[in-house]
Structures are given as structure tokens and as C-alpha cells.
Design brief:
It is a single chain. With 764 residues, this protein is of the alpha+beta class. The relative contact order is 0.14. The longest helix is centred in the first third of the chain and has 55 residues. It contains ten helices and 38 strands. Strands 3-30-31-32-34-35-29-28-13 form a nine-stranded antiparallel beta sheet. The protein has a five-stranded antiparallel beta sheet with strand order 6-5-9-12-11, with no helix packed on it. A four-stranded antiparallel beta sheet has the order 7-8-4-10. α1 packs antiparallel against α10 and α2 runs antiparallel to α3. It has six domains: 58 residues; 148 residues, f41 fragment of flagellin, N-terminal domain; 103 residues, Alpha-Beta Plaits; 115 residues, Immunoglobulin-like, CATH 2.60.40; 102 residues, no CATH class; 107 residues, no CATH class.
Length: 764
């Protein structure tokens, strides 16, 4: 082979090797410069794929770590506001305690109240202005549940008066609430009418037969008022016709026979009959029982049992009956009941008519509540005991229908005795009552009292060892009254203060087995659409921090419709036989599945609620959710991980003054108001403490989340580095080898070029 050809072939080989070396050296230099060995996809496709995924995870986790840091700052701002509110509530608590002192005059209390009201406003300012980057934190904007508020205000008290133009003569009588009072026996006349009325008021206030009512002499007028708010006080009667003394009356005329009742009592807030007791009276001091309301039940088999012209009669309270007549078509007056398309609808119409009735002859009707239970109409007294007419006799009812039967035609099956809290209207009278105190006032005589939620109830017991069952009334200034029945032969002989202490201990024992609940309207229930005019009432022993969690309406397919509302983890459910609809004005009870003494009472408005199909049930469920604001706000969302499901929502409760004090306007202008304010402030302290605990638990969870994310970043970064990062030592060695090899190849190429040049020179 010619020498020129050999040289040319050698040059080509060296150039090829030099190309490979240049490529390797370029890759190695790039890997060293970038710190990444995967500068090209072709380097290691599998490693590139895995490393890219890991890098994406690391990048996402670093962003999540920033989110967690922001969330922590978010919660720290909220905690700062809550700390300030806690300090304010501590001061409000101190002011309320300070104001509840008999040593203060009105001027001093006004000064304390000025500071009190300014601090309440500051609570609201903090709630409305605590924010993070424009997001309000404490005004309820971040609460995920629907907060339930209930009415704690009292309704109106019934009242009336007797005015004497002239003095009462010897032996004349006055008949009040079925009791005949005789001058010279029950009270004494004095020289003037004004003095006589003063004596009469004093006698009535100390007469146990008029427990639950207060009497005040106002010149020649005897003013009468119910101790407890509510329409039950309207049942008190003044029989002018049967009295021999001459007087005029302010009150409701009942029927033209000179009989009047007190008027003006309303059930718009806590009222008589809204506080109930359940459980067992312990010990032997008191008789057993917590009382029950008289009732009767009208039972029917089918729609054919009620025909046009059939009647239901209810005692009018004055010896006659108020008659309600069934009609086809629209009723022409308040005493007519429309026959519906089914028995259920007819009974619903009946309940609504009876509950709405007012006018002449309503004395008996207004003492009853009508409800529907399956194929039965139930009439129940509004208070424990028998339902009586103006003469004190149990009222009668009569069923004049084509079919059906009555379980009781006279409402005389109610019971009293033991402990009766019908007339309690103090909002704090819930749960377990304890802490009775007694003061010795004489042989077998004592003054016994108990403070409940800032309201003091006191009874003067004239005989602590009664020979017969004896009812004693505990009265308060603003919270109504309750009665206990001392058991015959089971009293405590009192001869010293230590004896009265033992008596107080027995009262504590008697009450220890009882639980007290209240029925309060849910004021946050805002019914619209088909729920227009409807209302919801909660009977419970705890009304603080209530949140509605869920609502479920099951369709009436097969006649098994039901409504279920979950509040604070407690499920309230209707009976399984609710049917397929709820009639206009019908009342439905949802009972707690964990405690039958706690209930939700739903009263329908003027529209029949149909849930006979799944679609209808869902529509009603939506309306309930809207009425109760379920679900609430969605809280503040934070992505704290690389995956979509790794997100949290931070929920912070509402700490505005309106929420903390359950809508009450509180002040400390009097000792009584200070007691109520103290109760409200202590409840608010519990609420703020609960919100702070929530914030703390979120913060704790975020701390763990931050640690987990940091660990994940470290581990995944290490995994990515093992796949993609340059091994500097190994790569440097390889780069040096490639450099030396390239230099050798360049030297060889140079020698080859010189050899070829020399050959060309020789040829020339």
C-alpha cells in the first residue's frame, strides 16, 4: 500500500477517536460545570425520568412548606386577638362581680357599666379587625359550621288589676283564681281603701295558694302580675261576679259572667312551661316526681271517621263548651276545621285550628297544645298538673265525630309534687342544680335559698316537719319561681343553724338526681320558601357553642319518611312513622338518640311539606340547610403537601360580642343585671377558650406537618441527587483522563500531519 494512503487512513482514525474524546470531554465538563450528570436525556433515560419526578415533588414540597409557614403566621395573628379578648373578658367578669354588691349606689354602677360597655365594644372591634392579609379571622368568616343562636330573653308577664273606688266592708269577699278571700278571715280592712288594699296585697303575697303571682298595692288599686313570663299566666282569673266587694277590673273578659283573666302574657322568649325536670328526686325530704301535664288522645282509624258536621268540644272554662265543627271547603270562621284529602291532613288542620284559636270561649283551649301522632290528635296541658276551669275543676273535652275514640274526656290525669319548675324563666336554670343554703329563723322554721346562674331563689319554710305533704315555693326577682313538695313525716327538725345546714344538704340530695332542660327558640333559623313561617325550638341543658353539622331528610316512600338534624355531635331524629308530609301548622318532635329528654320541636308554617319522593325530600333538605345556614363558611384552605388531597381547612369560630353573648344586650346597672351579665361573661370565656383551643390544635398539627414536609424534602432531594447530581471526584478523574487522551490524540494527529508533509516534500 502506498505510504500516502497509510498516513491518510491513520489521520482518519485519529480524528474519529478525537471526536469521541471531544464529545466525552464536553459532556464531562458540562456535568462538572452544572453539577448535573443528566445534561442530556440520552445519558440515562430511566434516571432522568425518576429524577424529574422527584424534582417536581421537592419543588411542590418547598411551596407547601411556605404555605405552612403562612398558616402558622395566620394562626399566630388569630391567637393574638383571642388573647386580647380573653383579657377583656377577665375584666368584664371582674366588673360584673364588683357590680353585684349591695354597697354600690346607682351612680357607682353607672361608672362601672360605662367601662363594661366600652370593653364589650372593644371585643367587637377586635373580632372585626383581626385579619391576615385582608382575611378576617375572628368574625365568623372562617367558621365551617353553622352556629345556632337561641333566645334567652324572657317573654311578657301576664298582668291585671282590681281598682276599689270605695273601702271594702267587713265580711265582703273577693274571688281570685278560684279562691274566695273573706275580709276579717283572709285579710283585714283598714281605715281607707288604700290601706285596705295594702293589707290585701301583703296577705296575698304570703298565701301559698297564689304561688307564682305577685301583688302590689298602688293606692286603691291591687296590681297583679305573674312571676314568670308566658301565656300560662293569662289563666289567672278574677271573678268579679262572684265577689261581694265592689271593684273594677283590668284584664281579659272571659264570657260576660263577670269573670276576667290576666292578659298580656306572651311566649316570645323563655316563659312559664319552658323549663322541665327529668330524672328522680333522691332522698325522702321531698315527694317523688317532677310532674306531668294532663292529656287526652283522640284516636281514629281512617278518613271516614271524620265527616262534615262532626265536632270536637273543649270546655270554655265557665261551665260551657267551645265547639269546633268540621266542614268541607274553606272554613268561614275560627271555629271551623277543614276536612282534608286524607286523615293525616284533617288531623293536621285540626291541630292548627286549635293552636291558633283565640276569642270568646278560648280559656280552656289556650291552656292546651294540639299535636298529631300518627292517626291520633293529642291534647296536652301547657303546664304540669290538671287543666282547670275558672272554678278550679278539670276541664272536659268531647268527641262528636262519626268514628274514633277518646282516651280521656276530662283533663284530670296530670300530676304535681316533688319538684315543679313550670314557672322558672332564669336562663341559667339548666343541668344539675346544687348549692342550697339555709338560715335558722326559729323552731322548725328556716329560710332556704339556692343561686342558679346568678339568680337567687328563696323560700321561707314555716314548718320543716310537716304532717301532710306541703308545697313550698322558691321565688326570685327575675327568674320566676319553682315549687317543691315536702313529704309528710319526712322533714328535718330545726333548732339550730347546724340543723338548717343538714336541711340544706337534704335539698342538695333531693335535686342531685334531676336534670333540668329548657325549650328555647332557635333564633338563627330563618325559614324561607316552603319553610316560611316555620320555627325550630331546642330543648336542652346546654345552649353554649351550638353548631349544626348536618341535615338529612329521608323520603316518605313506603310511609317511612324521617328528618335528622345533627348538632354538636348529637343526632336528633323524628319517629319512623312520620309519613310523607308535614301539614300546615303541624308540630313535629325530633328526639335525641342519646338522651330522650333533649328534643328539637319543629313547627311548620302555612305550607304543607311534601317529601313523598326522593326529589321532594332532597328539596326539603336543601331548604332546611338554607334556613340553618348549613354548611357554614369553608374556612381557610392551605395546601400542605405535594398532592391535591393534602390540603387542610383552618376553621376559627366567631368571637364577636353578639356571638359570645348569644344575642343578649348585657349591662351591670343593677345587682340583678350584674348576675345575669356574670353568667353571660363566664359562658363567653368558655367559648373564647374553646376557640383558642381550636387554634392551638391547628398550630400543633401544622408544626408536625412542617416537620414531615422538611423530612420529605430532605429524603426526596437525596434520592434525586443520587440519580442526577454529578459525582465530582469520579467525574473529575474521568475529565482528566479524557483531557490527557485528547492531548495525546492531538499530538498524534500533529505528528501524522508532519509525516505527511515530509512525504509531500520528498515527492516534490
Amino acid at each position: 500500500m502506498p505510504t500516502a494512503s497509510v498516513t491518510s487512513s491513520l489521520q482518519n482514525n485519529i480524528l474519529q477517536l478525537l471526536g469521541v474524546s471531544n464529545t466525552g470531554l464536553a459532556r464531562s465538563t458540562a456535568a462538572l460545570a452544572a453539577g448535573n450528570r443528566l445534561t442530556q436525556a440520552s445519558t440515562d433515560i430511566a434516571a432522568l425520568s425518576a429524577a424529574t419526578g422527584l424534582q417536581t415533588q421537592v419543588t411542590s414540597l418547598r411551596a407547601a412548606s411556605q404555605n405552612i409557614g403562612q398558616a402558622s403566621s395566620f394562626l399566630q395573628v388569630a391567637e393574638g386577638g383571642l388573647q386580647q379578648q380573653s383579657q377583656i373578658l377577665d375584666r368584664l367578669n371582674a366588673l360584673a362581680v364588683q357590680a353585684n354588691s349591695g354597697a354600690l349606689n346607682d351612680s357607682a354602677r353607672r361608672g362601672l357599666n360605662t367601662e363594661f360597655q366600652n370593653l364589650v365594644q372593644e371585643l367587637d372591634r377586635i373580632s372585626g379587625n383581626t385579619n391576615f392579609n385582608g382575611v378576617n379571622l375572628l368574625d365568623g368568616s372562617l367558621s365551617t359550621n353553622s352556629a345556632v343562636t337561641t333566645s334567652a330573653a324572657q317573654g311578657e308577664q301576664a298582668s291585671g288589676s282590681l281598682t276599689f273606688a270605695a273601702n271594702i266592708n267587713a265580711g265582703e269577699t273577693i274571688e281570685l283564681n278560684g279562691v274566695t278571700l273573706t275580709e276579717g278571715v283572709d285579710f283585714n280592712a283598714a281605715g281607707t281603701a288604700d290601706q285596705t288594699v295594702s293589707n290585701l296585697a301583703q296577705a296575698l303575697n304570703s298565701d301559698s295558694r297564689f304561688a307564682g303571682f305577685s301583688f302590689e298595692a298602688q293606692g286603691g288599686t291591687l296590681a297583679i302580675s305573674a312571676d314568670a313570663a308566658g301565656s300560662a299566666g293569662n289563666q289567672f282569673t278574677i271573678d268579679q261576679g262572684s265577689s261581694t266587694a265592689t271593684f273594677s277590673v283590668s284584664g281579659d273578659a272571659l264570657g260576660g259572667n263577670g269573670v276576667f283573666s290576666l292578659s298580656g302574657g306572651t311566649d316570645e322568649g323563655l316563659s312559664a312551661g319552658d323549663t322541665q325536670a327529668s330524672g328522680t328526686v333522691n332522698g325522702s325530704l321531698l315527694t317523688q316526681g317532677t310532674g306531668s301535664a294532663a292529656s287526652t288522645q283522640f284516636n281514629f282509624n281512617s278518613a271516614a271517621d271524620i265527616q262534615a258536621g262532626d265536632t270536637i268540644q273543649i270546655d270554655d272554662g265557665e261551665g260551657g263548651f267551645t265547639t269546633f265543627t268540621y266542614v268541607n271547603g274553606t272554613p268561614a270562621n275560627a271555629n271551623e276545621i277543614q276536612i282534608g284529602s286524607s286523615l293525616e291532613e284533617t288531623l293536621q288542620n285540626t291541630a292548627q285550628t286549635l293552636n291558633d284559636f283565640s276569642g270568646a270561649g278560648d280559656f280552656g283551649v289556650r291552656q292546651l297544645t294540639a299535636t298529631v301522632d300518627g292517626n291520633s290528635l293529642v291534647l296536652t296541658g301547657n303546664q304540669n298538673g290538671d287543666v282547670n276551669d275558672v272554678s278550679g275543676n278539670a276541664i272536659d273535652v268531647a268527641l262528636g265525630t262519626t268514628g274514633g275514640s277518646a282516651t280521656n274526656t276530662q283533663l284530670d290525669n296530670g300530676t304535681t309534687g316533688g319538684v315543679n319548675v313550670d314557672n322558672v324563666t332564669a336562663s341559667g336554670f339548666t343541668g344539675t342544680i346544687e348549692g342550697f343554703e339555709a338560715n335558722f329563723t326559729g323552731a322548725d322554721q328556716a329560710t332556704v335559698s339556692v343561686n342558679v346562674g346568678g339568680e337567687t331563689f328563696t323560700a321561707n319554710i314555716s314548718d320543716t316537719t310537716p304532717g301532710t305533704d306541703t308545697t313550698v315555693t322558691f321565688t326570685s326577682e327575675n327568674g320566676g319561681s319553682f315549687e317543691v313538695t315536702l313529704a309528710a313525716g319526712q322533714g328535718v327538725s330545726v333548732n339550730s343553724q347546724s340543723d338548717t345546714d343538714a336541711l340544706a344538704a337534704q335539698f342538695d340530695t333531693a335535686f342531685s338526681g334531676l336534670n333540668f332542660t329548657q325549650s328555647r327558640e332557635i333564633t338563627s333559623f330563618n325559614g324561607t320558601g316552603q319553610l316560611n313561617g316555620a320555627s325550630l325550638e331546642l330543648n336542652s341543658d346546654n345552649f353554649s357553642n351550638l353548631d349544626v353539622e348536618s341535615i338529612n331528610v329521608s323520603s316518605g316512600l313506603g310511609g317511612t319518611g324521617s328528618i335528622e338534624i345533627r348538632i354538636n355531635g348529637e343526632t336528633f331524629r323524628t319517629e319512623a312513622n312520620l309519613g310523607q308530609s308535614i301539614g300546615a301548622g303541624e308540630r313535629v318532635t325530633l328526639t335525641s338518640t342519646s338522651d330522650p329528654s333533649r328534643t328539637l320541636e319543629f313547627t311548620n308554617g302555612n305550607t304543607e311539606l311534601d317529601f313523598s319522593t326522593n326529589a321532594d325530600a332532597r328539596a326539603l333538605e336543601d331548604d332546611f340547610e338554607e334556613a340553618l345556614g348549613v354548611p357554614g363558611n369553608q374556612g381557610a384552605a392551605f395546601q400542605i403537601g405535594a398532592n391535591a388531597e393534602e390540603a387542610v381547612r383552618l376553621s376559627i369560630g366567631n368571637t364577636s360580642a353578639d356571638s359570645l353573648f348569644n344575642g343578649q344586650d348585657i349591662n351591670i346597672l343593677s345587682a340583678e343585671n350584674a348576675s345575669q351579665a356574670l353568667n353571660a361573661v363566664q359562658s363567653a370565656i368558655d367559648r373564647v377558650t374553646g376557640v383558642r383551643a381550636d387554634v392551638g390544635s391547628f398550630q400543633s398539627a401544622l408544626d408536625y406537618a412542617a416537620a414531615q414536609v422538611d423530612t420529605a424534602i430532605q429524603n426526596q432531594e437525596a434520592a434525586r441527587a443520587s440519580l442526577a447530581d454529578t459525582d465530582i471526584a469520579a467525574e473529575s478523574t474521568q475529565n482528566a483522563q479524557l483531557t490527557v487522551l485528547r492531548q495525546a490524540q492531538l499530538a498524534s494527529l500533529a505528528q501524522t500531519n508532519r509525516l505527511q508533509s515530509n512525504l509531500l516534500s520528498l515527492i516534490q
